[in-house]
Amino acid sequence: MKTIGLIGGLSWESSVSYYQYINQYVKRTYGGLHSAKCLLYSFDFQEIVHLQKAGEWAEATERMVEAGNKLKAGGADMLVICTNTMHLMAGEVEAATGLPVIHIVDALAEAIKAQDMKSIGLVGTQFTMEKPFYRERMARHGIELIVPNEEDRKKVHDVIFNELCVGTTCANSKQYYLSVIDQLAAKGAEGVILGCTEIPLLINQNDCALPLFDSTKLHAEKAVSLAIERNEKKDH
Question: What family classification does the UniProt entry report for this protein (predicted)?
């Protein structure tokens, strides 16, 4: 089994979910007392949020590369960026570290294409919904993204940072998110990406008739599938 390097703390709330899912998938594969070989670099998220708000993306990229190199030095064979937004610099991290970065959009696109969908709604941070990196990579897979209107993008973003990233879930926010999903469906979305790793803390498939794609869960599962060598046999 290869060692997975996790770039986390973005926020730590969702990093907990990554660690849990990754270990659950390894146990599901091998059974017994097996767990994942992984390393975690956890940021002080406030420092990263400050850079995001200030538009200091070059500095943020340097921080991400530094984290990746520390994980490489620790023995990581691959990297998982435990957030959607910071995939903005995934290419730079991969190039600078020489380690493969398991891209969250590729993991999502694989699941979406498995259901023969072409038009997908996206809720996430404003950076994820508005910057081209997410849309462009999804387009390479032949998938069109549909995002909320400007006012809703801001409100969706605010709920993430003001509530979910600090471990708070509100019933009103849950109903609001579900109304946004309904609007995306009305625009032609065949399903919706929960494109921030904290959003599954608020809503899940049981809350919605429209298919939801949990970016955290799918990303973690993809990482495990790549960490497990094909020729390995189940060892109980």
Answer: Belongs to the aspartate/glutamate racemases family.
Say what the alpha-carbon torsion angle 6, 10, 16, 21 is, to the nearest 10 degrees.
-60
CB 63 within 8 A of CB 51: yes
- Residue 140 CA to residue 80 CA, distance in Å, equals 21
pLDDT band at 201 (very low <50, low <70, confident <90, very high): confident
- pLDDT tens for 159-170 read 999 998 888 999
Catalytic annotation, residues: 83, 196
Answer yes or no: pTM beyond 0.85.
yes
Cβ within 8 Å of residue 31, ≥6 positions away: 234, 236
Q: Are 58 and 85 in contact (CB under 8 A)?
A: no
Mean pLDDT, the chain, as a whole number?
Answer: 94
Average pLDDT over residues 23-34: 94
Asked if residue 179 has a cis previous peptide bond (ω within 30° of 0), the answer is no
